[in-house]
Design goal:
By secondary structure, the chain is an alpha/beta fold. Helix 5 packs across helix 8. It has a domain of about 180 residues: P-loop containing nucleotide triphosphate hydrolases (Rossmann fold, 3-Layer(aba) Sandwich). Helices cover about 40% and strands about 25% of the residues.
């Protein structure tokens, strides 16, 4: 899979950009603040409907514009002539609109996962050093890349969680006064308990399966990038006792049992305390958790290994994702740059951004563009 054409209108710093792309390696070179990362971000958004830089759509639209448009031509593969045209119209405060081959889609998420991508950027250091939400997001984005239908499961879970929290908040004042909810409120809460457990179990099963498949790839990538005696491992820390539960039916039961056990605490606090939204993934190097113990260099290498492991897992699944390396090489020494370059040469398409062209290893020679003040030109 690779992108052969990218068009932007009023996206970030670009009033308009229209560039052709090739398979293989393409490098965008320019000083900081010139718009290199915006190109990568646009393709990431088209792939996942999210950005690694911001949590809302507003910053994606050029100042003074009402909407932004991202359009890309996607080839199925080097030996496959099929081509799809993907388009997103981003309008802050309103529903975004998507088109596939110029035909309107009912919901934007219907095009999520058509373009598969793996992005590594400096912000991904938060996978190692950040809050549990960063590790959950990383894992969830990967499982959606593996199984695009999981985007709908995530959306359903978030909707149920929001509704259940609203109900708990409305009941929390009464609980703090020492009164239990009436039969009608209890019945309504039990309905939302069941919804949360069912959708949460489906999301949880996908997370556990993906983490099991991912970590051997991550461990190998970490050893290749930063040879060490410390193995990279992960432990999923759930908010419920999952002993022996891996399939959705058993996980549903485990979540329901934990929800019922925490009923009093939830009513007192007015928030859902059990479910995938409360879980964490403890990433370790050797016997110690990486967060709080790993050096900056180890943390950077581990974060990179997580993304490269994702790339290799998707390829093992039969998916050829576009690999995007955003300002990665500046943080690596010469040896690690060369090891990274050798590890990605098999990708159908690699998009690289760099402030200094000399930072990009010679092994990644290919097409090169200069980016200056929002203008993109091929060298």
């Amino acid at each position: 899979m690779y992108v052969d054409h990218l068009q932007l209108a009023d996206f970030r710093s670009y009033a308009a950009v229209d560039i052709g792309l090739d398979s293989g390696v393409t490098t965008f070179v320019g000083a900081n603040g010139q718009g290199k990362t915006n190109l990568v971000e646009a393709l990431e958004y088209l792939s996942t409907l999210s950005s690694h830089r911001v949590s809302s759509d507003l910053p994606l639209v050029r100042a003074g514009a009402e909407r932004a448009i991202v359009r890309a031509g996607v080839r199925a593969g080097l030996d496959d002539d099929r081509r799809l045209l993907l388009e997103l119209e981003i309008t802050p405060g309103k529903a975004n609109r998507a088109r596939l081959n110029k035909a309107p889609m009912q919901r934007p998420r219907e095009i999520a996962g058509i373009l598969r991508s793996v992005v590594f950027a400096p912000e991904d250091l938060a996978i190692i050093k950040g809050d549990p939400s960063e590790r959950r997001r990383f894992l969830d984005e990967l499982l959606v890349a593996r199984w695009p239908r999981m985007a709908g499961v995530r959306a359903d879970y978030d909707r149920v969680l929001k509704q259940r929290n609203t109900l708990l908040k409305s009941l929390s004042g009464r609980a703090r006064g020492g009164h239990r909810p009436g039969p009608e409120a209890e019945s309504t809460l039990e309905v939302w308990d069941a919804h949360l457990a069912r959708t949460g179990a489906e999301l949880l099963a996908a997370r556990l399966s993906t983490l099991t498949d991912l970590m051997p790839q991550v461990a190998k990538c970490y050893a290749d990038i930063a040879p060490t005696n410390n193995d990279a491992t992960a432990d999923y820390r759930a908010s419920a006792d999952l002993t022996g539960a891996t399939e959705p039916e058993a996980l549903t039961g485990a979540l329901l049992a934990a929800i019922r056990a925490r009923r009093g605490d939830e009513l007192q606090r007015g928030v859902s305390l059990v479910g995938p939204h409360r879980d964490d993934i403890v990433l370790s190097l050797g016997p110690l958790p990486a967060k709080g113990y790993a050096s900056h260099g180890e943390s950077w290498s581990y974060a990179l290994a997580c993304k490269l492991g994702s790339f290799h897992l998707l390829r093992e699944d039969g998916i050829q994702p576009v690999l995007m390396l955003d300002d990665v090489f500046a943080e690596l020494d010469t040896t690690r740059r060369e090891r990274l370059a050798r590890g990605v040469l098999g990708a159908e398409q690699v998009l690289v951004t760099a402030a200094v062209a000399a930072d990009v290893p010679a092994e990644l020679a290919g097409a090169r563009y200069s980016v200056t003040l929002g203008e993109v030109s091929r060298d």
